[in-house]
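Checklist before submission:
- one chain only
- standard amino acids only
- sequence pasted in full

Submission:
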Amino acid sequence: MIRLVRIVRNVEFSELFDDFFITAITTILLIRFYLKLTGYPAIGGSTLHISHLLPGSLLMLVAILVLLAAVNRAARNFAAIVAGIGFGLSWDELGKFITKNNNYFFHATPGLIYLTFILLYLIVRYSASRRFTQDDYMANVLDIIKDAAIKDLDTREYQHAQELLAHVSPKHALYTPTKQMLERVRPNPDREPSLLDKFINWFKKPLRMIIEQPGFPSLIISIAITYGVISVAAAIFFFAGAAIDNVRHLPAILRGDEADAVGGLSALGAAICSLVATYKYRHGNHARAYRFFELGLLINIFIGQVVLFFKSQEIALAWLAVTLFLLINLKMLAEEERRSSAKI
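Returned file contents:
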């Protein structure tokens, strides 16, 4: 069988995609909010029109050049975020790409935008769920070790390399030399964090303080239940909007259309995931509880959130901030759970 190119899979692909995914969606929502707030201004004067497709394309070019030029792993996180911003800027103008009159306000654009994100998410999740081979694990271990050459290997990455090596058979040709190399390499306690690392650490600092509190498990249950109840209320709100779209005396936010049915289904799905997460957590299956809770948040982000945004941009932006905060918090909890399980 002839292959166009051999791809060695990155075990962190799913995490990198999440950075790209969340950044792209957030960018689109912020653009729509800003344009609505400012009356859709045109940049370029009476002669030119500088579309935000231009900076979006340039940012994606920057991300590609960073990936081509760099071999260190930290560059991938930076490129994922830059590419997410660039893709969000570009894909927000989808209406201009598919209409003869370059209509940014084409009525089907919001639906097509969130549909592409749904398909993209499902494709990536399917790809990430496929089983890794021993060669994949070995290549990722070596990929982590090479960061030690530039003194950029921290304790978390070192532990991650040990976990990955545990999936490789001792009979593998590179197992013994790689294990010896890993034993000689030590994480750098004096590693200077990048500007991006500093920003992420600053953002996560209050979350870590919350995680370290003794009553945090109870707080997680409360958050799951609260989010589930709010999602049920959101589902009722959306379904009501779909049913009473022609009642003129109601406020504009309560008047809906067919899209509200999609929003209602997504909110109901998020509520079910949150309630399942609560059940799993109460029965001690924390890892699966985090996955269900994350799924509920993602359903809300790339389906319900888009529908809500076109009903009330202010409410949508506030709800997006809460959802992203919970999603980041959840990922930190899942990471701590994974580390704890690996030590047992």
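Reviewer check: The CA atoms of residues 134 and 171 lie 11 Å apart.
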